[in-house]
Amino acid sequence: MPLLEVDGLKVRFATPEREVTAVDGVDFFIDAGECVAIVGESGSGKSQTLLACTGLLAANGRVTGRVRFDGAELLGGDERGLEEVRGTGIGFVFQDAPGSLTPHLTVGRQLVEAAAVRIGTDRVRAREEALGMLERVHVPDAESRLRQYPHELSGGTRQRVAIAAALMPRPRLLIADEPTTALDVTVQAQVLELFRELRREFDMALVLVTHDLGVVAGLAERVIVMYAGRIVEEAPVLSFFRSPRHPYSAGLLEALPRLDDEPGSPMRTIPGAPPRPGATAPRREPGRLPVSAPLCARLLALREGGAGPGGGSSGTDRLSSPARSGTESMNAPLLQVTGVSVRYALGGSSSWSRRWLTAVDSASFRLAAGETLGLVGESGCGKSTLGRALLGLVPVHAGSVLIAGERMDQATGRWLRALRRNIQMVFQDPLASLDPRMTVG
Protein backbone atom coordinates (compact mmCIF):
# COMPACT_ATOMS: atom_id res chain seq x y z
CA MET A 1 0.00 0.00 0.00
CA PRO A 2 1.41 3.45 -0.91
CA LEU A 3 2.36 5.78 1.93
CA LEU A 4 0.57 8.68 0.20
CA GLU A 5 -2.18 8.13 -2.36
CA VAL A 6 -3.92 10.96 -4.23
CA ASP A 7 -6.99 10.33 -6.43
CA GLY A 8 -8.86 12.88 -8.54
CA LEU A 9 -7.56 15.88 -6.61
CA LYS A 10 -9.02 19.21 -7.71
CA VAL A 11 -8.22 22.60 -6.19
CA ARG A 12 -10.35 25.64 -6.88
CA PHE A 13 -10.03 29.19 -5.61
CA ALA A 14 -12.87 31.69 -5.29
CA THR A 15 -11.94 35.07 -6.76
CA PRO A 16 -14.04 38.24 -7.24
CA GLU A 17 -14.33 37.50 -10.97
CA ARG A 18 -14.83 33.72 -11.03
CA GLU A 19 -13.80 30.41 -9.56
CA VAL A 20 -10.33 29.40 -10.74
CA THR A 21 -9.20 25.79 -11.06
CA ALA A 22 -5.54 25.54 -10.06
CA VAL A 23 -5.29 21.73 -9.92
CA ASP A 24 -7.47 19.67 -12.24
CA GLY A 25 -7.89 15.97 -11.46
CA VAL A 26 -4.44 14.89 -10.25
CA ASP A 27 -3.64 11.24 -9.43
CA PHE A 28 -0.34 9.98 -8.04
CA PHE A 29 1.16 7.91 -5.22
CA ILE A 30 4.31 7.94 -3.08
CA ASP A 31 5.72 4.70 -1.71
CA ALA A 32 7.46 4.50 1.67
CA GLY A 33 11.12 5.41 1.42
CA GLU A 34 11.12 6.60 -2.21
CA CYS A 35 11.95 10.02 -3.64
CA VAL A 36 9.60 11.54 -6.22
CA ALA A 37 10.22 14.88 -7.93
CA ILE A 38 7.35 17.07 -9.14
CA VAL A 39 8.52 19.50 -11.83
CA GLY A 40 6.99 22.16 -14.04
CA GLU A 41 6.90 25.91 -14.52
CA SER A 42 5.72 28.33 -11.86
CA GLY A 43 1.93 28.27 -11.70
CA SER A 44 1.60 24.69 -12.93
CA GLY A 45 -0.05 23.60 -9.67
CA LYS A 46 2.84 21.81 -7.92
CA SER A 47 2.76 23.62 -4.60
CA GLN A 48 -1.05 23.88 -4.46
CA THR A 49 -1.34 20.13 -4.97
CA LEU A 50 0.78 19.38 -1.92
CA LEU A 51 -0.68 22.17 0.21
CA ALA A 52 -4.13 20.70 -0.51
CA CYS A 53 -2.93 17.23 0.53
CA THR A 54 -1.86 18.55 3.93
CA GLY A 55 -4.81 20.89 4.57
CA LEU A 56 -2.79 24.07 4.17
CA LEU A 57 -4.69 25.80 1.38
CA ALA A 58 -5.55 29.49 1.59
CA ALA A 59 -8.95 30.36 3.06
CA ASN A 60 -10.54 30.85 -0.37
CA GLY A 61 -9.41 27.43 -1.58
CA ARG A 62 -11.69 24.41 -2.03
CA VAL A 63 -10.44 20.88 -2.55
CA THR A 64 -12.19 17.72 -3.77
CA GLY A 65 -10.94 14.19 -4.37
CA ARG A 66 -9.25 11.70 -2.05
CA VAL A 67 -5.93 11.90 -0.19
CA ARG A 68 -4.87 8.95 1.96
CA PHE A 69 -1.77 8.89 4.16
CA ASP A 70 -0.79 5.47 5.51
CA GLY A 71 -4.34 4.32 4.72
CA ALA A 72 -6.10 7.14 6.60
CA GLU A 73 -8.18 9.72 4.71
CA LEU A 74 -6.87 13.28 5.17
CA LEU A 75 -9.56 15.28 3.36
CA GLY A 76 -12.74 16.00 5.24
CA GLY A 77 -11.31 15.14 8.66
CA ASP A 78 -10.99 17.40 11.68
CA GLU A 79 -8.14 19.89 11.99
CA ARG A 80 -6.77 18.20 15.10
CA GLY A 81 -6.20 14.96 13.21
CA LEU A 82 -4.48 16.84 10.40
CA GLU A 83 -2.20 18.60 12.88
CA GLU A 84 -1.11 15.24 14.31
CA VAL A 85 -0.29 13.96 10.81
CA ARG A 86 1.59 17.18 9.97
CA GLY A 87 3.47 17.01 13.26
CA THR A 88 4.89 13.49 13.02
CA GLY A 89 3.82 11.87 9.74
CA ILE A 90 4.41 14.62 7.15
CA GLY A 91 7.04 17.36 7.30
CA PHE A 92 6.93 20.39 5.01
CA VAL A 93 9.83 22.59 3.87
CA PHE A 94 8.08 25.64 2.43
CA GLN A 95 9.28 27.64 -0.55
CA ASP A 96 9.22 30.82 1.55
CA ALA A 97 11.72 30.11 4.33
CA PRO A 98 11.25 33.46 6.17
CA GLY A 99 7.47 32.95 6.14
CA SER A 100 7.77 29.53 7.76
CA LEU A 101 9.77 30.84 10.73
CA THR A 102 8.18 32.89 13.52
CA PRO A 103 9.96 36.27 13.51
CA HIS A 104 9.61 37.01 17.25
CA LEU A 105 10.98 33.63 18.46
CA THR A 106 14.63 32.62 18.48
CA VAL A 107 15.81 29.82 16.24
CA GLY A 108 16.48 27.65 19.28
CA ARG A 109 12.99 28.04 20.70
CA GLN A 110 11.39 27.14 17.38
CA LEU A 111 13.54 24.04 16.90
CA VAL A 112 13.01 22.89 20.49
CA GLU A 113 9.26 23.23 19.96
CA ALA A 114 9.51 21.07 16.81
CA ALA A 115 11.59 18.46 18.65
CA ALA A 116 9.07 18.32 21.51
CA VAL A 117 6.48 16.89 19.11
CA ARG A 118 8.50 13.67 19.09
CA ILE A 119 10.40 13.49 22.38
CA GLY A 120 8.07 15.28 24.80
CA THR A 121 8.91 17.96 27.35
CA ASP A 122 12.57 17.15 28.01
CA ARG A 123 13.90 20.60 27.13
CA VAL A 124 17.56 19.75 27.64
CA ARG A 125 17.41 16.79 25.27
CA ALA A 126 15.31 18.80 22.80
CA ARG A 127 17.92 21.56 22.77
CA GLU A 128 20.70 19.02 22.19
CA GLU A 129 18.77 17.56 19.25
CA ALA A 130 18.10 21.05 17.87
CA LEU A 131 21.81 21.85 18.01
CA GLY A 132 22.67 18.52 16.38
CA MET A 133 20.19 19.06 13.55
CA LEU A 134 21.55 22.55 12.82
CA GLU A 135 25.00 21.01 12.57
CA ARG A 136 23.67 18.27 10.26
CA VAL A 137 22.27 20.86 7.85
CA HIS A 138 25.67 22.62 8.01
CA VAL A 139 24.69 25.83 9.76
CA PRO A 140 27.96 27.53 10.78
CA ASP A 141 28.42 28.39 14.48
CA ALA A 142 25.23 26.48 15.30
CA GLU A 143 25.41 27.20 19.05
CA SER A 144 25.15 30.96 18.58
CA ARG A 145 22.44 30.58 15.90
CA LEU A 146 20.13 29.05 18.51
CA ARG A 147 20.09 32.43 20.28
CA GLN A 148 19.41 34.46 17.13
CA TYR A 149 16.17 35.52 15.48
CA PRO A 150 15.34 34.70 11.84
CA HIS A 151 15.95 38.26 10.61
CA GLU A 152 19.53 38.09 11.88
CA LEU A 153 20.39 35.24 9.49
CA SER A 154 21.29 35.24 5.82
CA GLY A 155 18.76 33.87 3.33
CA GLY A 156 20.68 30.62 2.89
CA THR A 157 21.01 30.10 6.64
CA ARG A 158 17.27 30.71 7.14
CA GLN A 159 16.59 28.08 4.49
CA ARG A 160 18.75 25.57 6.36
CA VAL A 161 17.00 26.40 9.65
CA ALA A 162 13.61 25.79 7.98
CA ILE A 163 14.85 22.41 6.72
CA ALA A 164 16.10 21.56 10.21
CA ALA A 165 12.71 22.46 11.74
CA ALA A 166 10.88 20.20 9.27
CA LEU A 167 13.24 17.30 10.01
CA MET A 168 13.14 17.58 13.82
CA PRO A 169 10.03 15.37 14.31
CA ARG A 170 11.57 12.69 12.00
CA PRO A 171 8.58 12.61 9.58
CA ARG A 172 7.82 9.53 7.48
CA LEU A 173 7.21 11.79 4.48
CA LEU A 174 9.04 15.05 3.84
CA ILE A 175 7.60 17.46 1.27
CA ALA A 176 10.33 19.87 0.19
CA ASP A 177 9.12 22.79 -1.93
CA GLU A 178 12.18 24.31 -3.62
CA PRO A 179 14.35 23.37 -0.60
CA THR A 180 17.66 24.43 -2.13
CA THR A 181 16.67 27.59 -4.02
CA ALA A 182 18.44 29.95 -1.59
CA LEU A 183 21.49 27.72 -1.09
CA ASP A 184 24.82 27.85 -2.86
CA VAL A 185 25.96 24.77 -4.75
CA THR A 186 28.24 23.45 -2.01
CA VAL A 187 25.62 23.68 0.75
CA GLN A 188 23.00 22.40 -1.70
CA ALA A 189 25.06 19.25 -2.21
CA GLN A 190 25.43 18.84 1.56
CA VAL A 191 21.69 19.22 2.17
CA LEU A 192 20.82 16.77 -0.60
CA GLU A 193 23.26 14.26 0.88
CA LEU A 194 21.55 14.79 4.25
CA PHE A 195 18.22 13.95 2.62
CA ARG A 196 19.77 10.73 1.32
CA GLU A 197 21.11 9.84 4.77
CA LEU A 198 17.77 10.49 6.49
CA ARG A 199 15.89 8.46 3.90
CA ARG A 200 18.13 5.49 4.66
CA GLU A 201 18.16 6.09 8.41
CA PHE A 202 14.44 6.63 8.97
CA ASP A 203 12.96 5.03 5.82
CA MET A 204 11.66 8.51 5.00
CA ALA A 205 9.88 9.21 1.72
CA LEU A 206 10.69 12.50 -0.01
CA VAL A 207 8.67 14.63 -2.42
CA LEU A 208 10.80 17.28 -4.15
CA VAL A 209 9.03 20.23 -5.75
CA THR A 210 11.68 21.94 -7.79
CA HIS A 211 12.69 23.77 -10.96
CA ASP A 212 16.23 22.43 -10.66
CA LEU A 213 16.47 19.39 -12.92
CA GLY A 214 20.03 18.81 -11.72
CA VAL A 215 18.66 18.14 -8.23
CA VAL A 216 16.05 15.82 -9.76
CA ALA A 217 18.71 13.82 -11.62
CA GLY A 218 20.84 13.41 -8.51
CA LEU A 219 18.17 12.46 -5.98
CA ALA A 220 14.81 11.39 -7.42
CA GLU A 221 13.69 7.93 -8.50
CA ARG A 222 10.52 9.03 -10.29
CA VAL A 223 9.52 12.27 -11.98
CA ILE A 224 6.02 13.76 -12.24
CA VAL A 225 5.63 16.61 -14.75
CA MET A 226 2.79 19.11 -14.22
CA TYR A 227 1.44 21.62 -16.71
CA ALA A 228 -1.68 23.82 -16.37
CA GLY A 229 -2.77 22.02 -13.21
CA ARG A 230 -2.51 18.53 -14.68
CA ILE A 231 0.00 15.72 -14.72
CA VAL A 232 1.21 15.27 -18.30
CA GLU A 233 3.97 12.71 -17.74
CA GLU A 234 5.16 10.34 -15.04
CA ALA A 235 8.28 8.21 -15.53
CA PRO A 236 11.38 6.78 -13.86
CA VAL A 237 14.07 9.41 -13.64
CA LEU A 238 16.41 7.79 -16.17
CA SER A 239 13.61 7.36 -18.72
CA PHE A 240 12.59 11.00 -18.23
CA PHE A 241 16.06 12.35 -19.00
CA ARG A 242 16.89 9.90 -21.79
CA SER A 243 13.62 9.93 -23.71
CA PRO A 244 10.89 12.31 -22.44
CA ARG A 245 7.55 11.20 -23.86
CA HIS A 246 5.58 14.43 -23.63
CA PRO A 247 6.62 17.46 -25.71
CA TYR A 248 6.37 19.73 -22.67
CA SER A 249 8.89 17.51 -20.84
CA ALA A 250 11.17 17.70 -23.86
CA GLY A 251 10.84 21.48 -23.83
CA LEU A 252 11.85 21.66 -20.15
CA LEU A 253 14.94 19.57 -20.80
CA GLU A 254 15.85 21.52 -23.92
CA ALA A 255 15.75 24.76 -21.93
CA LEU A 256 18.54 23.60 -19.62
CA PRO A 257 21.74 25.67 -20.04
CA ARG A 258 24.60 23.73 -21.63
CA LEU A 259 28.31 24.17 -21.04
CA ASP A 260 29.01 23.81 -24.76
CA ASP A 261 26.77 26.75 -25.72
CA GLU A 262 28.60 29.54 -27.51
CA PRO A 263 28.98 32.74 -25.41
CA GLY A 264 26.20 35.18 -26.29
CA SER A 265 24.05 32.56 -28.03
CA PRO A 266 20.28 32.87 -27.46
CA MET A 267 18.90 30.96 -24.51
CA ARG A 268 16.61 28.07 -25.41
CA THR A 269 13.15 28.58 -23.96
CA ILE A 270 9.59 27.37 -24.29
CA PRO A 271 7.90 30.21 -26.25
CA GLY A 272 5.20 32.30 -24.63
CA ALA A 273 4.03 32.11 -21.04
CA PRO A 274 2.27 29.44 -18.96
CA PRO A 275 -1.53 29.58 -19.16
CA ARG A 276 -3.63 31.20 -16.49
CA PRO A 277 -4.98 28.67 -13.95
CA GLY A 278 -8.09 26.95 -15.22
CA ALA A 279 -7.39 27.43 -18.93
CA THR A 280 -7.15 24.44 -21.25
CA ALA A 281 -3.92 25.94 -22.50
CA PRO A 282 -2.27 23.05 -24.35
CA ARG A 283 -5.22 23.10 -26.76
CA ARG A 284 -5.59 26.88 -26.96
CA GLU A 285 -1.87 27.70 -26.99
CA PRO A 286 -0.19 24.97 -29.04
CA GLY A 287 2.68 27.34 -29.80
CA ARG A 288 3.96 26.86 -26.24
CA LEU A 289 4.87 23.25 -26.98
CA PRO A 290 7.45 22.25 -29.60
CA VAL A 291 5.09 20.04 -31.63
CA SER A 292 1.95 20.49 -33.74
CA ALA A 293 -1.42 21.44 -32.24
CA PRO A 294 -3.15 18.09 -33.01
CA LEU A 295 -0.35 16.20 -31.28
CA CYS A 296 -0.59 18.53 -28.26
CA ALA A 297 -4.27 17.68 -27.95
CA ARG A 298 -3.63 13.93 -28.18
CA LEU A 299 -0.79 14.08 -25.61
CA LEU A 300 -2.48 16.38 -23.10
CA ALA A 301 -3.02 13.68 -20.48
CA LEU A 302 -0.14 11.45 -21.55
CA ARG A 303 1.35 9.40 -18.74
CA GLU A 304 4.00 6.68 -18.95
CA GLY A 305 3.65 4.56 -22.08
CA GLY A 306 2.72 7.19 -24.67
CA ALA A 307 4.06 8.66 -27.90
CA GLY A 308 7.67 9.46 -28.67
CA PRO A 309 9.64 12.51 -27.65
CA GLY A 310 9.19 15.96 -29.04
CA GLY A 311 11.97 18.28 -30.02
CA GLY A 312 13.01 21.36 -28.17
CA SER A 313 12.00 24.89 -29.03
CA SER A 314 14.21 26.92 -31.25
CA GLY A 315 14.52 29.60 -28.60
CA THR A 316 13.29 33.16 -28.32
CA ASP A 317 15.00 36.49 -28.37
CA ARG A 318 16.41 37.67 -25.09
CA LEU A 319 17.65 41.02 -23.96
CA SER A 320 21.37 41.17 -24.37
CA SER A 321 24.06 43.66 -25.16
CA PRO A 322 27.01 43.22 -27.50
CA ALA A 323 30.25 42.18 -25.87
CA ARG A 324 32.29 45.19 -24.94
CA SER A 325 36.00 45.43 -25.37
CA GLY A 326 38.30 45.38 -22.39
CA THR A 327 39.44 48.90 -23.23
CA GLU A 328 35.90 50.25 -23.12
CA SER A 329 35.23 48.51 -19.79
CA MET A 330 38.39 50.00 -18.27
CA ASN A 331 37.81 53.53 -19.60
CA ALA A 332 34.11 53.97 -18.89
CA PRO A 333 33.01 52.20 -15.69
CA LEU A 334 29.37 52.78 -14.82
CA LEU A 335 29.97 51.28 -11.39
CA GLN A 336 33.28 51.57 -9.56
CA VAL A 337 33.66 49.77 -6.21
CA THR A 338 36.96 50.36 -4.41
CA GLY A 339 38.01 48.72 -1.12
CA VAL A 340 34.47 48.49 0.27
CA SER A 341 34.12 47.03 3.77
CA VAL A 342 30.91 46.52 5.76
CA ARG A 343 30.83 45.67 9.47
CA TYR A 344 28.07 44.81 11.93
CA ALA A 345 28.19 45.48 15.68
CA LEU A 346 27.73 42.42 17.89
CA GLY A 347 26.60 43.09 21.45
CA GLY A 348 28.07 45.54 23.90
CA SER A 349 26.48 48.78 25.00
CA SER A 350 29.67 50.83 24.74
CA SER A 351 32.36 51.19 22.10
CA TRP A 352 35.03 49.43 24.19
CA SER A 353 32.89 46.31 24.82
CA ARG A 354 31.39 46.05 21.33
CA ARG A 355 32.57 43.30 18.96
CA TRP A 356 32.43 43.64 15.20
CA LEU A 357 31.60 41.17 12.44
CA THR A 358 33.17 41.99 9.08
CA ALA A 359 30.65 40.92 6.42
CA VAL A 360 32.48 42.45 3.42
CA ASP A 361 36.23 43.03 3.48
CA SER A 362 37.93 45.33 0.92
CA ALA A 363 35.82 44.45 -2.13
CA SER A 364 36.83 46.09 -5.41
CA PHE A 365 35.47 45.71 -8.95
CA ARG A 366 34.19 47.79 -11.85
CA LEU A 367 31.30 47.38 -14.28
CA ALA A 368 30.85 49.09 -17.65
CA ALA A 369 27.50 50.13 -19.12
CA GLY A 370 25.74 47.15 -20.70
CA GLU A 371 27.92 44.55 -18.99
CA THR A 372 26.70 41.70 -16.81
CA LEU A 373 28.74 40.66 -13.77
CA GLY A 374 28.17 37.42 -11.86
CA LEU A 375 28.80 37.64 -8.11
CA VAL A 376 28.99 34.11 -6.67
CA GLY A 377 29.99 32.46 -3.42
CA GLU A 378 28.64 30.42 -0.52
CA SER A 379 25.78 31.51 1.73
CA GLY A 380 26.95 34.10 4.24
CA CYS A 381 30.04 35.19 2.27
CA GLY A 382 28.76 38.77 1.86
CA LYS A 383 27.13 38.85 -1.60
CA SER A 384 23.76 40.30 -0.52
CA THR A 385 25.39 42.67 1.97
CA LEU A 386 27.61 44.05 -0.80
CA GLY A 387 24.53 44.54 -3.01
CA ARG A 388 22.78 46.45 -0.24
CA ALA A 389 25.89 48.57 0.30
CA LEU A 390 25.81 49.63 -3.36
CA LEU A 391 22.28 50.95 -2.79
CA GLY A 392 23.15 52.66 0.48
CA LEU A 393 20.85 50.31 2.43
CA VAL A 394 23.71 49.42 4.78
CA PRO A 395 26.53 51.80 5.67
CA VAL A 396 29.97 51.43 4.11
CA HIS A 397 32.66 51.52 6.78
CA ALA A 398 35.57 51.84 4.37
CA GLY A 399 36.11 52.35 0.66
CA SER A 400 33.94 54.02 -1.96
CA VAL A 401 31.06 53.27 -4.35
CA LEU A 402 30.82 55.42 -7.49
CA ILE A 403 27.84 55.16 -9.83
CA ALA A 404 28.27 57.20 -13.01
CA GLY A 405 30.91 59.18 -11.13
CA GLU A 406 28.69 59.98 -8.11
CA ARG A 407 29.71 58.84 -4.59
CA MET A 408 26.84 56.57 -3.54
CA ASP A 409 28.42 55.78 -0.18
CA GLN A 410 28.43 59.47 0.84
CA ALA A 411 24.96 60.40 -0.46
CA THR A 412 22.16 61.34 1.96
CA GLY A 413 18.61 62.69 1.79
CA ARG A 414 17.38 63.92 -1.59
CA TRP A 415 20.75 63.26 -3.18
CA LEU A 416 20.59 59.58 -2.16
CA ARG A 417 16.98 59.23 -3.38
CA ALA A 418 17.93 60.76 -6.73
CA LEU A 419 20.87 58.38 -7.17
CA ARG A 420 18.73 55.37 -6.27
CA ARG A 421 16.51 56.01 -9.28
CA ASN A 422 19.40 54.80 -11.41
CA ILE A 423 20.04 51.55 -9.53
CA GLN A 424 17.47 48.89 -8.62
CA MET A 425 17.63 45.65 -6.67
CA VAL A 426 15.62 42.42 -6.91
CA PHE A 427 15.75 41.06 -3.38
CA GLN A 428 16.23 37.43 -2.44
CA ASP A 429 12.91 37.34 -0.59
CA PRO A 430 10.19 38.72 -2.92
CA LEU A 431 7.42 38.53 -0.30
CA ALA A 432 9.29 40.82 2.05
CA SER A 433 9.96 43.34 -0.73
CA LEU A 434 6.27 43.75 -1.70
CA ASP A 435 3.81 45.75 0.41
CA PRO A 436 1.16 43.28 1.68
CA ARG A 437 -1.41 46.08 2.10
CA MET A 438 -1.38 47.07 -1.58
CA THR A 439 -2.57 45.29 -4.69
CA VAL A 440 0.03 44.32 -7.27
CA GLY A 441 -1.24 47.03 -9.59
Offer a quick outline of the entry:
The protein is of the alpha/beta class.
Explain what this protein looks like in three dimensions.
- With 441 residues, this protein is of the alpha/beta class.
- The chain has helices spanning 46-53, 79-89, 107-119, 123-136, 142-145, 155-167, 185-202, 213-219, 237-242, 247-254, 281-284, 293-298, 326-331, 383-391, 413-420; strands spanning 4-14, 19-30, 35-39, 61-69, 72-73, 90-93, 173-177, 205-209, 222-227, 230-236, 333-346, 355-368, 398-403, 406-407.
- A six-stranded mixed sheet has the order 6-7-8-3-9-10, sandwiched between helices.
- The radius of gyration is 24 Å and the shape is globular.
- The chain starts with a strand and ends in a 21-residue tail after the last helix.
